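Q: Start with the shorter request: fold the first protein.
A: Done. Sequence, then structure:
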Amino acid sequence: MPPVTRVVLAEDEVLLREGLVGLLERFGFEVLAAAGSAPELLAAARTHRPDLVVTDIRMPPGRRDDGLRAAVELRAERPELAVVVLSQHVQAEYAAALLGSGDGRRVGYLLKDRVAEVVEFVEQLRTVTGGGTVIDPDVVRRLLHRPNDPLAALSGREREVLGLVAQGRSNAAIAAALHVTEAAVGKHVGNILTKLGLLPSDDTNRRVLAVLTYLRGGSTWTGPSADRRG
Protein backbone atom coordinates (compact mmCIF):
# COMPACT_ATOMS: atom_id res chain seq x y z
CA MET A 1 0.00 0.00 0.00
CA PRO A 2 1.21 3.57 -0.70
CA PRO A 3 2.15 5.63 2.37
CA VAL A 4 -0.65 7.60 4.01
CA THR A 5 -0.61 11.32 3.16
CA ARG A 6 -0.25 13.40 6.32
CA VAL A 7 -2.26 16.65 6.19
CA VAL A 8 -2.54 19.92 8.09
CA LEU A 9 -5.83 21.67 7.26
CA ALA A 10 -6.67 25.35 7.77
CA GLU A 11 -10.23 26.71 7.49
CA ASP A 12 -11.85 29.28 9.78
CA GLU A 13 -15.46 28.18 9.19
CA VAL A 14 -16.00 25.43 11.75
CA LEU A 15 -18.59 23.41 9.83
CA LEU A 16 -16.56 23.40 6.62
CA ARG A 17 -13.39 22.59 8.55
CA GLU A 18 -14.99 19.60 10.25
CA GLY A 19 -16.51 18.49 6.95
CA LEU A 20 -13.12 18.60 5.25
CA VAL A 21 -11.53 16.63 8.09
CA GLY A 22 -14.17 13.92 7.72
CA LEU A 23 -13.85 13.86 3.94
CA LEU A 24 -10.06 13.54 4.00
CA GLU A 25 -10.10 10.83 6.63
CA ARG A 26 -12.74 8.92 4.70
CA PHE A 27 -10.39 8.79 1.71
CA GLY A 28 -7.40 7.62 3.70
CA PHE A 29 -5.61 10.88 4.52
CA GLU A 30 -4.27 11.39 8.04
CA VAL A 31 -5.30 14.81 9.36
CA LEU A 32 -2.63 15.83 11.88
CA ALA A 33 -4.19 19.19 12.81
CA ALA A 34 -7.10 21.45 11.80
CA ALA A 35 -6.29 25.13 12.25
CA GLY A 36 -8.69 28.07 12.43
CA SER A 37 -6.24 30.88 11.68
CA ALA A 38 -3.04 31.57 9.74
CA PRO A 39 -0.82 31.66 12.87
CA GLU A 40 -2.29 28.31 13.96
CA LEU A 41 -1.56 26.92 10.49
CA LEU A 42 2.07 28.03 10.67
CA ALA A 43 2.51 26.54 14.13
CA ALA A 44 0.84 23.24 13.23
CA ALA A 45 2.78 22.81 9.98
CA ARG A 46 6.09 23.53 11.68
CA THR A 47 5.30 21.12 14.51
CA HIS A 48 3.92 18.21 12.49
CA ARG A 49 5.82 18.66 9.20
CA PRO A 50 2.99 17.26 7.04
CA ASP A 51 3.16 16.02 3.46
CA LEU A 52 0.30 18.33 2.43
CA VAL A 53 -1.22 21.62 3.61
CA VAL A 54 -4.77 22.48 2.55
CA THR A 55 -5.76 26.03 3.44
CA ASP A 56 -8.38 28.65 2.76
CA ILE A 57 -6.91 31.88 1.35
CA ARG A 58 -9.04 34.19 3.49
CA MET A 59 -8.11 33.46 7.11
CA PRO A 60 -7.90 35.25 10.47
CA PRO A 61 -6.41 37.38 11.83
CA GLY A 62 -6.59 39.68 8.81
CA ARG A 63 -9.35 37.71 7.01
CA ARG A 64 -7.81 38.66 3.69
CA ASP A 65 -4.99 36.63 2.13
CA ASP A 66 -3.48 35.43 5.43
CA GLY A 67 -3.85 31.76 4.52
CA LEU A 68 -2.07 32.23 1.21
CA ARG A 69 0.75 34.17 2.82
CA ALA A 70 1.17 31.44 5.41
CA ALA A 71 1.28 28.81 2.65
CA VAL A 72 3.92 30.73 0.69
CA GLU A 73 5.95 31.20 3.88
CA LEU A 74 5.83 27.47 4.59
CA ARG A 75 6.90 26.72 1.03
CA ALA A 76 9.86 29.05 1.46
CA GLU A 77 10.91 27.01 4.49
CA ARG A 78 10.14 23.62 2.91
CA PRO A 79 10.04 23.80 -0.91
CA GLU A 80 9.06 20.12 -1.07
CA LEU A 81 5.86 20.74 0.92
CA ALA A 82 2.69 20.14 -1.11
CA VAL A 83 0.17 22.99 -0.74
CA VAL A 84 -3.40 23.39 -1.98
CA VAL A 85 -5.22 26.67 -1.37
CA LEU A 86 -8.99 27.11 -1.59
CA SER A 87 -10.69 30.32 -2.65
CA GLN A 88 -14.21 31.66 -3.05
CA HIS A 89 -13.22 33.68 -6.12
CA VAL A 90 -10.98 33.49 -9.17
CA GLN A 91 -7.77 35.45 -8.53
CA ALA A 92 -5.02 34.62 -11.01
CA GLU A 93 -2.35 36.38 -8.95
CA TYR A 94 -2.93 33.93 -6.10
CA ALA A 95 -2.21 30.99 -8.41
CA ALA A 96 0.88 32.84 -9.61
CA ALA A 97 1.99 33.31 -6.01
CA LEU A 98 1.94 29.58 -5.41
CA LEU A 99 3.68 28.75 -8.67
CA GLY A 100 6.35 31.26 -7.77
CA SER A 101 7.08 29.43 -4.49
CA GLY A 102 9.59 26.62 -4.24
CA ASP A 103 10.11 24.96 -7.62
CA GLY A 104 6.56 25.66 -8.75
CA ARG A 105 5.45 22.04 -8.36
CA ARG A 106 3.34 20.31 -5.71
CA VAL A 107 0.91 23.24 -5.59
CA GLY A 108 -2.79 23.65 -6.26
CA TYR A 109 -5.26 26.55 -6.49
CA LEU A 110 -8.89 25.42 -6.38
CA LEU A 111 -12.23 27.15 -5.96
CA LYS A 112 -14.16 26.03 -2.89
CA ASP A 113 -17.01 24.84 -5.09
CA ARG A 114 -14.73 22.01 -6.26
CA VAL A 115 -14.84 20.44 -2.79
CA ALA A 116 -18.42 19.33 -3.56
CA GLU A 117 -17.03 17.23 -6.43
CA VAL A 118 -15.52 14.89 -3.87
CA VAL A 119 -13.79 12.27 -6.01
CA GLU A 120 -12.26 14.87 -8.34
CA PHE A 121 -11.17 16.99 -5.37
CA VAL A 122 -9.41 14.04 -3.73
CA GLU A 123 -7.71 13.13 -7.01
CA GLN A 124 -6.45 16.70 -7.32
CA LEU A 125 -5.01 16.57 -3.80
CA ARG A 126 -3.22 13.35 -4.68
CA THR A 127 -1.93 14.87 -7.92
CA VAL A 128 -0.39 17.76 -6.00
CA THR A 129 1.06 15.49 -3.32
CA GLY A 130 2.57 13.35 -6.07
CA GLY A 131 4.49 16.30 -7.51
CA GLY A 132 1.91 17.77 -9.89
CA THR A 133 0.44 21.24 -10.26
CA VAL A 134 -3.32 21.81 -10.39
CA ILE A 135 -4.95 25.14 -11.27
CA ASP A 136 -8.73 25.47 -11.23
CA PRO A 137 -10.21 25.35 -14.75
CA ASP A 138 -12.21 28.53 -14.07
CA VAL A 139 -8.94 30.41 -13.53
CA VAL A 140 -7.65 29.11 -16.85
CA ARG A 141 -10.85 30.05 -18.69
CA ARG A 142 -10.78 33.56 -17.27
CA LEU A 143 -7.19 34.03 -18.38
CA LEU A 144 -8.05 32.96 -21.91
CA HIS A 145 -10.35 35.98 -22.25
CA ARG A 146 -8.25 38.67 -20.62
CA PRO A 147 -7.37 41.83 -22.61
CA ASN A 148 -3.83 42.56 -23.82
CA ASP A 149 -3.00 38.88 -23.88
CA PRO A 150 0.79 38.44 -23.58
CA LEU A 151 0.51 35.06 -25.28
CA ALA A 152 -0.62 36.52 -28.59
CA ALA A 153 2.26 34.76 -30.39
CA LEU A 154 0.70 31.38 -29.66
CA SER A 155 -1.72 29.74 -32.04
CA GLY A 156 -5.22 28.84 -30.92
CA ARG A 157 -4.26 25.20 -30.48
CA GLU A 158 -1.11 26.13 -28.56
CA ARG A 159 -3.15 28.31 -26.20
CA GLU A 160 -5.56 25.43 -25.71
CA VAL A 161 -2.69 23.06 -24.93
CA LEU A 162 -1.13 25.55 -22.50
CA GLY A 163 -4.49 25.95 -20.77
CA LEU A 164 -4.59 22.20 -20.17
CA VAL A 165 -0.98 22.20 -19.00
CA ALA A 166 -1.99 24.89 -16.51
CA GLN A 167 -4.63 22.50 -15.15
CA GLY A 168 -1.83 20.04 -14.33
CA ARG A 169 -2.53 17.54 -17.12
CA SER A 170 0.16 15.32 -18.60
CA ASN A 171 0.86 15.14 -22.34
CA ALA A 172 -1.04 11.84 -22.48
CA ALA A 173 -4.08 13.35 -20.76
CA ILE A 174 -3.99 16.39 -23.06
CA ALA A 175 -3.78 14.12 -26.11
CA ALA A 176 -6.84 12.20 -24.92
CA ALA A 177 -8.79 15.41 -24.24
CA LEU A 178 -7.99 16.91 -27.66
CA HIS A 179 -8.21 13.61 -29.59
CA VAL A 180 -4.72 13.95 -31.01
CA THR A 181 -1.53 11.94 -30.63
CA GLU A 182 0.81 12.38 -27.71
CA ALA A 183 3.55 13.23 -30.21
CA ALA A 184 1.42 16.10 -31.53
CA VAL A 185 0.97 17.42 -28.00
CA GLY A 186 4.72 17.19 -27.42
CA LYS A 187 5.31 19.25 -30.56
CA HIS A 188 2.81 21.90 -29.42
CA VAL A 189 4.43 22.08 -25.99
CA GLY A 190 7.84 22.47 -27.61
CA ASN A 191 6.54 25.31 -29.79
CA ILE A 192 4.98 27.01 -26.76
CA LEU A 193 8.22 26.87 -24.80
CA THR A 194 10.19 28.21 -27.75
CA LYS A 195 7.77 31.09 -28.40
CA LEU A 196 7.87 32.05 -24.71
CA GLY A 197 11.66 32.11 -24.83
CA LEU A 198 12.05 29.24 -22.36
CA LEU A 199 15.24 27.64 -23.59
CA PRO A 200 16.34 24.15 -22.46
CA SER A 201 17.93 24.06 -19.03
CA ASP A 202 18.71 21.36 -16.50
CA ASP A 203 17.93 23.73 -13.63
CA THR A 204 14.35 24.79 -14.40
CA ASN A 205 11.03 23.15 -15.08
CA ARG A 206 10.02 24.85 -18.30
CA ARG A 207 6.41 23.69 -18.14
CA VAL A 208 6.02 25.35 -14.76
CA LEU A 209 7.65 28.53 -16.05
CA ALA A 210 5.29 28.54 -19.05
CA VAL A 211 2.25 28.25 -16.77
CA LEU A 212 3.66 30.97 -14.52
CA THR A 213 4.01 33.27 -17.55
CA TYR A 214 0.45 32.36 -18.49
CA LEU A 215 -0.90 33.21 -15.05
CA ARG A 216 1.09 36.37 -14.57
CA GLY A 217 -0.04 37.75 -17.89
CA GLY A 218 3.37 39.24 -18.57
CA SER A 219 3.50 41.28 -15.34
CA THR A 220 5.52 40.77 -12.21
CA TRP A 221 3.60 39.53 -9.18
CA THR A 222 4.69 41.33 -6.03
CA GLY A 223 2.37 39.72 -3.48
CA PRO A 224 -1.35 39.39 -2.78
CA SER A 225 -3.13 42.71 -2.56
CA ALA A 226 -4.28 43.70 0.88
CA ASP A 227 -7.75 44.62 -0.34
CA ARG A 228 -8.44 41.33 -2.12
CA ARG A 229 -10.72 38.66 -0.72
CA GLY A 230 -10.03 34.94 -0.90
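Q: Next, the second protein, separately.
A: Sequence, then structure:
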Amino acid sequence: MTTPDDDPTRIRSQPALTRSTGRIWLIVGGIFTVMALAVLVPMTTLPPSGVALAAAIVVVLAYATIVLALLLVPARRLRLRLGLMAVSLLVSAAVALIAAVIVATAAAQELTGVL
Protein backbone atom coordinates (compact mmCIF):
# COMPACT_ATOMS: atom_id res chain seq x y z
CA MET A 1 0.00 0.00 0.00
CA THR A 2 1.33 3.43 -0.91
CA THR A 3 1.28 6.35 1.45
CA PRO A 4 0.47 9.86 0.23
CA ASP A 5 4.19 10.70 0.33
CA ASP A 6 5.03 7.77 -1.99
CA ASP A 7 2.31 8.51 -4.54
CA PRO A 8 4.08 9.29 -7.86
CA THR A 9 1.06 11.23 -9.16
CA ARG A 10 1.19 13.70 -6.29
CA ILE A 11 2.30 17.13 -7.52
CA ARG A 12 5.08 17.39 -4.94
CA SER A 13 6.46 14.02 -6.08
CA GLN A 14 6.94 14.97 -9.73
CA PRO A 15 10.48 14.46 -11.05
CA ALA A 16 10.63 18.05 -12.31
CA LEU A 17 10.23 19.23 -8.72
CA THR A 18 12.32 16.61 -6.99
CA ARG A 19 15.31 15.97 -9.24
CA SER A 20 15.70 19.00 -11.52
CA THR A 21 19.00 20.88 -11.50
CA GLY A 22 17.37 24.14 -12.54
CA ARG A 23 19.57 24.38 -15.62
CA ILE A 24 16.52 24.42 -17.90
CA TRP A 25 15.26 27.57 -16.15
CA LEU A 26 18.59 29.25 -16.87
CA ILE A 27 18.41 28.30 -20.54
CA VAL A 28 14.77 29.24 -21.07
CA GLY A 29 15.13 32.38 -18.97
CA GLY A 30 18.21 33.43 -20.92
CA ILE A 31 16.51 32.88 -24.27
CA PHE A 32 13.43 34.78 -23.12
CA THR A 33 15.53 37.63 -21.72
CA VAL A 34 17.39 38.06 -25.02
CA MET A 35 14.12 38.01 -26.99
CA ALA A 36 12.42 40.48 -24.64
CA LEU A 37 15.38 42.85 -24.75
CA ALA A 38 15.46 42.61 -28.55
CA VAL A 39 11.90 43.98 -28.53
CA LEU A 40 12.10 46.40 -25.60
CA VAL A 41 15.43 48.13 -26.25
CA PRO A 42 14.39 49.54 -29.66
CA MET A 43 11.14 50.71 -28.05
CA THR A 44 12.97 52.91 -25.54
CA THR A 45 12.82 55.84 -27.96
CA LEU A 46 9.05 55.62 -28.30
CA PRO A 47 6.50 57.26 -26.01
CA PRO A 48 5.53 56.96 -23.23
CA SER A 49 9.07 57.66 -22.22
CA GLY A 50 10.70 55.28 -19.78
CA VAL A 51 8.18 52.43 -19.99
CA ALA A 52 10.24 50.19 -22.26
CA LEU A 53 13.46 51.00 -20.40
CA ALA A 54 11.89 50.21 -17.02
CA ALA A 55 10.51 46.95 -18.40
CA ALA A 56 13.92 46.01 -19.82
CA ILE A 57 15.49 46.61 -16.41
CA VAL A 58 12.84 44.46 -14.71
CA VAL A 59 13.42 41.65 -17.23
CA VAL A 60 17.17 41.71 -16.55
CA LEU A 61 16.57 41.75 -12.78
CA ALA A 62 14.17 38.82 -13.08
CA TYR A 63 16.82 36.81 -14.93
CA ALA A 64 19.35 37.79 -12.27
CA THR A 65 16.89 36.41 -9.70
CA ILE A 66 16.82 33.10 -11.58
CA VAL A 67 20.62 32.93 -11.51
CA LEU A 68 20.81 33.92 -7.84
CA ALA A 69 18.15 31.38 -6.89
CA LEU A 70 20.22 28.64 -8.51
CA LEU A 71 23.39 29.79 -6.76
CA LEU A 72 22.06 30.73 -3.33
CA VAL A 73 19.10 28.47 -2.50
CA PRO A 74 20.42 25.19 -1.11
CA ALA A 75 19.75 21.96 -3.00
CA ARG A 76 17.71 20.60 -0.10
CA ARG A 77 15.21 23.42 -0.80
CA LEU A 78 14.76 22.39 -4.44
CA ARG A 79 11.05 23.23 -4.67
CA LEU A 80 11.69 26.71 -3.28
CA ARG A 81 14.51 27.23 -5.78
CA LEU A 82 12.42 26.07 -8.74
CA GLY A 83 9.43 28.08 -7.54
CA LEU A 84 11.52 31.25 -7.39
CA MET A 85 12.82 30.57 -10.88
CA ALA A 86 9.34 29.95 -12.28
CA VAL A 87 7.86 33.05 -10.66
CA SER A 88 10.77 35.18 -11.89
CA LEU A 89 10.29 33.98 -15.46
CA LEU A 90 6.54 34.62 -15.29
CA VAL A 91 7.09 38.12 -13.88
CA SER A 92 9.54 38.99 -16.64
CA ALA A 93 7.14 37.68 -19.29
CA ALA A 94 4.22 39.64 -17.87
CA VAL A 95 6.20 42.87 -17.53
CA ALA A 96 7.65 42.60 -21.05
CA LEU A 97 4.24 41.89 -22.57
CA ILE A 98 2.46 44.70 -20.73
CA ALA A 99 5.20 47.21 -21.55
CA ALA A 100 5.25 46.21 -25.23
CA VAL A 101 1.47 46.61 -25.44
CA ILE A 102 1.56 50.01 -23.70
CA VAL A 103 4.32 51.36 -25.94
CA ALA A 104 2.84 49.89 -29.13
CA THR A 105 -0.58 51.32 -28.31
CA ALA A 106 0.84 54.76 -27.59
CA ALA A 107 2.90 54.68 -30.79
CA ALA A 108 -0.11 53.61 -32.85
CA GLN A 109 -2.24 56.39 -31.35
CA GLU A 110 0.49 58.90 -32.11
CA LEU A 111 0.73 57.73 -35.71
CA THR A 112 -3.01 57.96 -36.26
CA GLY A 113 -3.25 61.28 -34.43
CA VAL A 114 -5.72 59.95 -31.87
CA LEU A 115 -4.66 61.29 -28.51
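Q: Describe the second briefly.
A: Residues 51 and 99 are 6 Å apart (CA to CA). The mean pLDDT is 88.
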